[in-house]
Amino acid sequence: MAYSTQADIEKLLTPAQLVQLTDDNQDGLADATILTEAIAQADAEIDGYLGSRYPVPVSPVPALLRQLSVAVSIWRLYGRRGMTNERRRQDYEDAVSKLKALATGTMVLPATGGGEVATDASDQPEASRSSEDRTFTIGRPSTGDVGSLDNF
Q: Closest Cα partner for 57 from 72, 70, 42, 71?
């Protein structure tokens, strides 16, 4: 499931801009296949950032992800033509900044049903200061159990 649609992109680009950015066969029409490919590339980039923190693809799609997908998709459309547009570049950089913040946890996605990946405490190493739990010793031989570094 895509995070944005052609209709979302059409809200920000004029029909003439869409034709200019996607009409490879010079028929005067915007190419939906190219738009779909740009959206897929943008969504893959988004998943790359979010995959370490959220289950991807995110469903249902929050409005924030739709906005980011549109910004990245439009930047990709300009990029494929080798065109620069300061506003679209800034939109893309803002989107990447937000994606990085989402990936690091300084920003969170609104409730999506899937939510943030929960970390199960049983999967995490547990710290202990008691001597009974020590695998390695410092300055004295261990009992020789597995994990000992006595012979190194």
A: 42
Residue 53 lies in a domain: yes
Residue 142 in domain: no
DSSP character for 26?
A: -
Whole-number Å distance between alpha carbons of 30 and 33: 9
Is the residue at 47 inside a domain?
yes
Q: Quote the CA–CA distance of 121 and 71 in Å, as a whole number.
A: 37
Positive or negative: CA dihedral 133, 137, 140, 143: positive
The total domain count for the chain is 1
Tokens of 22: 């996607």
Whether the CA torsion 103, 39, 4, 114 is positive or negative: it is negative
**Residue carrying the six token digits 């994606």:** 99
Q: What is the pLDDT of residues 39-98, one digit of tens each?
A: 999 999 999 999 999 999 999 999 999 999 999 999 999 999 888 889 999 999 999 999
Residue 91 covered by a domain: yes
| Segments forming the whole domain that contains residue 68 | 6-104
